[in-house]
């Protein structure tokens, strides 16, 4: 497709680009002409202009999602407990942290710290020597 801009469609507008868009649209430029000038999609230009006319601001909105239940200090405490005692359970960590969090939060913090559960072997793996002796 000749009119498609690869990669630019999904990247977010910088503050400077937002100012350019608003200035050009205020000067009477068409959406298509502004989009070509700032090398962004017409949809991005239209959304920026609509936000400016609706709210009077071009600032980006804060991110969505749930608010954090733990602070950095509590995150470090979770990881430290798992490092000190590898056999500690999620419910024990949950009780020690002192904040109402779900076990998935603890698991996610441990995974971010590259700590994974260590399950013991059910049986020891056979070495080539063991296999040979067993076949005999």
UniProtKB/TrEMBL annotation:
<dbReference type="InterPro" id="IPR002492">
    <property type="entry name" value="Transposase_Tc1-like"/>
</dbReference>
<dbReference type="InterPro" id="IPR009057">
    <property type="entry name" value="Homeodomain-like_sf"/>
</dbReference>
<dbReference type="GO" id="GO:0005634">
    <property type="term" value="C:nucleus"/>
</dbReference>
<dbReference type="GO" id="GO:0003677">
    <property type="term" value="F:DNA binding"/>
</dbReference>
<dbReference type="GO" id="GO:0006313">
    <property type="term" value="P:DNA transposition"/>
</dbReference>
<feature type="region of interest" description="Disordered">
    <location>
        <begin position="55"/>
        <end position="74"/>
    </location>
</feature>
<protein>
    <submittedName>
        <fullName>Transposable element Tc1 transposase</fullName>
    </submittedName>
</protein>
<dbReference type="GO" id="GO:0015074">
    <property type="term" value="P:DNA integration"/>
</dbReference>
<feature type="domain" description="Transposase Tc1-like">
    <location>
        <begin position="75"/>
        <end position="136"/>
    </location>
</feature>
<dbReference type="Pfam" id="PF01498">
    <property type="entry name" value="HTH_Tnp_Tc3_2"/>
</dbReference>
């Amino acid at each position: 497709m000749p009119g498609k801009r690869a990669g630019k469609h999904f990247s977010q507008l910088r503050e400077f680009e937002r100012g350019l868009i608003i200035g050009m649209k205020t000067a009477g430029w068409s959406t298509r002409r502004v989009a070509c000038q700032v090398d962004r999609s017409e949809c991005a230009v239209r959304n920026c202009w609509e936000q400016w006319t609706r709210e009077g601001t071009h600032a980006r909105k804060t991110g969505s999602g749930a608010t954090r239940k733990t602070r950095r200090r509590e995150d470090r405490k979770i990881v430290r407990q798992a490092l000190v005692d590898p056999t500690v359970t999620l419910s024990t960590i949950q009780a020690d942290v002192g904040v109402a969090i779900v076990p998935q939060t603890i698991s996610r913090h441990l995974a971010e710290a590259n700590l994974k559960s260590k399950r013991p072997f059910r049986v020891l793996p056979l070495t080539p020597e063991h296999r040979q002796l067993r076949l005999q």
